[in-house]
Amino acid sequence: MVYTIEEIKEKIQPIAEKYELPVVYLFGSYARNEADEDSDIDLAISVKNLDITGFELLDLEDEVKSQFNIPVDFLIVEDIEMGKSPIALQVKKNFEQEKVRLYETGTVRKRLLFS
């Protein structure tokens, strides 16, 4: 199954709110509108200023993966930004070029963004 970006946003919003995530990005083939039946969903979440344990992060990942019938890969935004190896730099470059903001905590309220 191939999801639309809007379908992904709708599934991500309640989970992002539950875990009080500052921001969630989509990148990769789905962000480029090149997804096909063999594509996975690539998500990057920010944990900046977030009090979350490793176990809670695993719960979050499991909860997101349970919403989709295809593989979901997770990256942490702060890890992407700190990468210095050639592979990490390529991931960072691709992420910066492709990222689509799915969710961001607002200053007054949390909202679903339609980037």
From TrEMBL:
Pfam families with a match to the protein in the record: Polbeta
Keywords: ATP-binding, Magnesium, Metal-binding, Nucleotide-binding, Nucleotidyltransferase, Transferase
Limits of the Polymerase beta nucleotidyltransferase domain: 10-79
Keyword Plastid (UniProt): no
InterPro entries per the UniProt record, alphabetical: NT_sf (IPR043519), Polbeta (IPR041633), Type-VII_TA_antitoxin (IPR052038)
Molecular function, one GO term: ATP binding
Obligatory cofactor(s): Mg(2+)
Cell inner membrane in keyword set: no
Protein name: Nucleotidyltransferase domain protein
Source organism per UniProt: Streptococcus ictaluri 707-05
